Recover the amino acids of this structure.
C-alpha cells in the first residue's frame, strides 16, 4: 500500500496540546509519521498514512478534546 498524505485543520495550538494527542497518534496502526504546524493559523496536522483513514485520525484528535477537519 502506498503512503498517503492526509491534512487536517485543527485547534492544536501549542506543544502542550500536541503532547496530549502524541501517544495516540504515535501508536495508531497505519500512521507512518505525523506533525502539527502550530505556527500556521490553521494549526495543520499532517499525517503520512499507511492505512489509517481520515475518520480514524479525526476520532483520535477528538477523543483528546480537540477539533480536526479534513483539508481537501
Amino acid at each position: 500500500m502506498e503512503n498517503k498524505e492526509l491534512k487536517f485543520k485543527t485547534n492544536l495550538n501549542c506543544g502542550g496540546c500536541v503532547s496530549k494527542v502524541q501517544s495516540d497518534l504515535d501508536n495508531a496502526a497505519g500512521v507512518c509519521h505525523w506533525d502539527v504546524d502550530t505556527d500556521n493559523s490553521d494549526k495543520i496536522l499532517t499525517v503520512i498514512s499507511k492505512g489509517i483513514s481520515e475518520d480514524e485520525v479525526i476520532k483520535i484528535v477528538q477523543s483528546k478534546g480537540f477539533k480536526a477537519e479534513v483539508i481537501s
